[in-house]
Amino acid sequence: MMHMTFYLSRNVTLLFSSCQTDSWISYALTLLACFIFSIFYQYMEDRCLCFKLLSTSAASNTTNGTAVDATPLLNKKIFAGSSRWNVGRVAGAVQFGINSAIGYFFMLAIMSFNGGVFVAIVVGLAVGYLLFRSGDDEQVVVVENPCACA
User: Cα angle vertex 55, ends 64, 93, to 5°?
Assistant: First the structure.
């Protein structure tokens, strides 16, 4: 039976019926996996912001009076006539899809209502934010989508 309130137990079914914990070791490994994937999610969000900055910024610098492309791989056109389809935009879209899928998996994992899973994911997100996204020397970037799982 599915729990409808938070509970603390080592017996948890996470995402799939085949992913059940029945011992303290399997429960600890499940919490560690949630923690590590949460940190990885924040790393991927940071990479997504970097792709967005690189693909939308003015990608040309002047060196000795000539224009030099700063990101030649990201600005390569996929279709010759289209200015909207470059490698940077497609890579950003793929990464956005991956980040959205991971975010929805986190939502479903938290909906197991296990207190340990909830704490592992939230602490992992906080640690990942501290490691990858809270630098003092970075520019402040306004993200148009405030959804936590996007």
Answer: 160
